[in-house]
Give the backbone structure.
Amino acid sequence: MLYVLYGEDDYSRQLALNEIKSTIGDETALATNTTVLDAPKVSIDQLKTVAEVVPFLAEKRLVIIQGLLGRFESRGKSGRRKKNAGASDRQDECRPLADYLLTVPESTVVVLVDGKIGNKNPLLNALSAKAKVKAFPLLQKDRLIRWIKNRVVERGSSIAPPAIDLLTSYVGSNLWTMAGEIDKLLLFAEGKRIEADDVKRVVSYVHEASVFDLVDAILEFRGGVAARLAEQLLQRGASPAYVLVMLTRQVRLIVRAKELKNQRRAEAEIMGRLEMTSQKHLHLTLEQAGRYTLARLKEVYHRLLETDLSIKTGKYAPELALNILIAELCHGAKTSVR
């Protein structure tokens, strides 16, 4: 039996893999009859050696191959002749693999696991007719909303639409994070309907919203406002180290977004390159990138790195280091802004 599981939604992809495992047999027996292969390094001879081993005290053995489809993805835009030659080489390499995968012994279950794969992938196309193929794209909009509602209902509770809107805004399509935040909300609500205020109090990603404001205050030399915002984050349970990490991350994203925008990259490409899952965070970051000079952004970024080093070397306690950082960055006139 051959399964193909691919897509960016690795949470749902993992659930599907777990379901396949549950149908094969006893968990203890399966543990001794499972092999995981790293596809970029595996050869067809190695695959044959593993797939043709007789199961030990079990009816089936499981072979999980990670990244094999990705090995045959098209690589960039080169010249036409080079591109055609590359496609021919990939086709020649994948054909014997596809032929073998479709004829593995009945006693072996093979599962190909991969991330985002294009619809022109030669190995995927060669296997699609006979393998059990399932794609797992990131959930967006209505599908993500349904997923949130279903998870809450399955756990015996309910959630208000404004709370769902906030959740999708803060967390995006990362279902690993979303599942964890929903579980925390269910405990916090204690059987009552989850409301928007619950999300604001509980969900860790709400700190990111304040980080945007804190970055603005620092970049605009508003020391009093920046100090108050930092204190609010600390009172909500964020550690000084967390605040520093989030500040560094956001300023780095702004710098990269500014550079990509100057290269006239499309928003979808910028979102992908910055590995963002929330449209709201992308738009806020692009807005900040348009408002501040690269010189001011780099100045703040380097000071953040220096502060991180001073904490790690024990020169300053984390909270003191954060306070000194904000005071120093906000000292001076607004000469570099805009």
User: Anything to note?
Assistant: The chain has three domains: 2-135, 141-202, 206-329.
